Amino acid sequence: MTSDRLAELVAAAQRPVVFTGAGVSTESGIPDFRSAGGVWDRYDPSELTWQSFIGSVAGRRRYWDVGRVVYPVIRAAEPNAAHRALAELYRLGRLSCCITQNVDDLHQRAGLPPEAVIELHGNATRVRCLACDAGWHRDEIHTWLEAGVDVPSCPTCGGIVKPRTVLFGETMPRAALAEAERCARASDLFVVVGSSLAVYPAAYLPAHALDAGATLVVVNLTPTRLDARAALVIRARAGEVLPGVVEHVRALKGTTRE
Ligand SMILES: [Zn+2]
């Protein structure tokens, strides 16, 4: 079994790091918003950029019109077997950190502590005021929308209220990116799960890890540009592979002296 080989690598690593992409979320029923047939086919992404959000009330109205539809999908989703397996690996001391492109909070809801999750594209379940930094859970803002507010603004200072996600055209959160790079370089095992490594900076984080001497593993349904440099490539769903890895790691722990 290829998952046995992955389990052996995870069990032997000093600083295993996992990088998750949209593939992990789609297994929870959250559509890949950037893929063909996704939400962006129904909306024009060029109208949902950082520039249009910041630039005008009309831009923010378009954004929240989409958010009104998309957020309930995220809220209804539950962590899947892959999320639960990664949280369990962390509890077993077999995961240093999880770098993710996903914004759905499902890693945390599965039990990964927030400090072990590095969110490159932010978090859709949190909202903040860009002026005074007041914060809310997205559920609360969603109730405002449902009550008839079309463009939420900060009740305290009147500032622009924005989900903590990274919009098209928005700068990546510098601290998260720096931390992800640090983790990648410090890792001795870097496991890509459910990402085709197509978008920046996904492609170069595993490359950093490789350059620093880490072993690369790719668990993804489709080929990635770094498959050729991977020690192991598993063409399967994360939810089918990772629970087996946990089981095997547990068994290995049971047979070795602590
Ligand atoms: Zn404010």
Keywords:
single chain; 258 residues; alpha/beta; six-stranded parallel β-sheet; three-stranded antiparallel β-sheet
If strands are numbered along the chain, what order do they take across the biggest sheet?
Answer: 3-2-1-7-8-9
Question: What distance lies between the first and last C-alpha atoms, to the nearest angstrom?
Answer: 26 Å
Which series of helices and strands comes N to C? Answer: HEHHHHEHEEEHEHEHEEH
| Molecules bound to protein | zinc ion
Helix content: 40-55%
Biggest sheet overview: 6 strands, parallel
Strand percentage: 15-25%
Average per-residue pLDDT, rounded, comes to 92
Give the CA-based shape. elongated
Cα gyration radius (Å): 19 Å
Taking pLDDT < 50 over at least 5 consecutive residues as the criterion, the unreliable ranges are none
Structural class: alpha/beta
Quick one: how many beta strands? 9
What would a concise description of this structure say?
By secondary structure, this protein is of the alpha/beta class. It is 41% helix and 16% strand. The strands form two sheets. It has a six-stranded parallel beta sheet with strand order 3-2-1-7-8-9, sandwiched between helices.
Tell me what you see in this structure.
- By secondary structure, the chain is of the alpha/beta class.
- The protein is built from 10 helices and 9 strands.
- The strands form 2 sheets. Strands 3-2-1-7-8-9 form a 6-stranded parallel beta sheet, with helices on both faces. The chain has a 3-stranded antiparallel beta sheet with strand order 5-4-6.
- Helix 4 crosses helix 7 and helix 8 runs parallel beside helix 9.
- The longest helix is centred in the first third of the chain and has 20 residues.
- The model has no long low-confidence stretch (mean pLDDT 92).
- The protein binds zinc ion (ZN).
- The site of zinc ion (ZN) has 8 residues, from loops.
